[in-house]
Amino acid sequence: MTIAVTGATGQLGRILIEKLKQKIAPEQIVALARSADKAADLGVAVREADYEKPDTLDRALAGIDTLMLISSSEVGKRATQHQNIIDAAKKAGVKRIVYTSLLHADTSALSLAPEHVQTETALEKSGIVHTVLRNGWYTENYAVSIPGAVQAGAFVGSAGDGRISSATRADFAEAAVAVLTGNGHDGKTYELAGDDSYTLTELAAEISRQTGKDIPYRNLPQDEYAAVLKSVGVPEAFAGALAAFDVDAANGALFHDGHALSGLIGRPTTPLADAVAAALKG
């Protein structure tokens, strides 16, 4: 069995490959990346794979049995890029694809959802055996703001009292490895989320507890939160998207009370307190 992993140099891809190396021989893993040089430290074979260059995809997938398709980071281009690699996989005779989609993709209000639905449809039409991992929110999406919140004296957002069932990238990577190396997952769609949920008020309280400082949560209107993000260097379009995601979270888009993720990894998902502690250590 040879497993190729797209987005190998990304944050999720790197963790996934390290965990995959603990389950199968490195010789069975191929890292796919636009820049092979950036993947040279992964300890596995590396092949150039550019979603925009189908000829590189044909070469990259030659002799591959299973494709771990980590969704592209280029929002707005994902559906086309994913279609390109699915077409190349079919051409190359890839036997199975595991895809990282979005929690409740078919009903989610998040602007990220439509491209994931298009990709899930493309997988169905391809005829290739596949498994869909509908990943929930990464805890790191909020944890990255913790040092700044401590410095500023408040954690800000627009999520109101919405509950967030996040898990760490390591949790999601471990689930993907379980599916890639296990049996009985073909044709299944998994809704994956953390075991426990929290509000941003509760996140701020945990930060306060661990730092010994009063770090309250301040809920802002969407446009004001976007302006705050822009003021700290977040590009305008991305700042607007992040603020919109928070509003969706306020309406329940990031909540899920199933336990499929912990079921796949065979342990509870990483507690919020642990993620906060890791963020504070830097």
UniProtKB/TrEMBL annotation:
Pfam families, per database record: NAD_binding_10
Domain NAD(P)-binding span(s) in chain numbering: 7-181
InterPro entries, sorted: NAD(P)-bd_dom, NAD(P)-bd_dom_sf, NmrA-type_oxidoreductase
PANTHER family: NMRA-LIKE DOMAIN-CONTAINING PROTEIN, QUINONE OXIDOREDUCTASE 2
Protein's name in the database: SDR family NAD(P)-dependent oxidoreductase
Organism: Pelagibacterium lacus
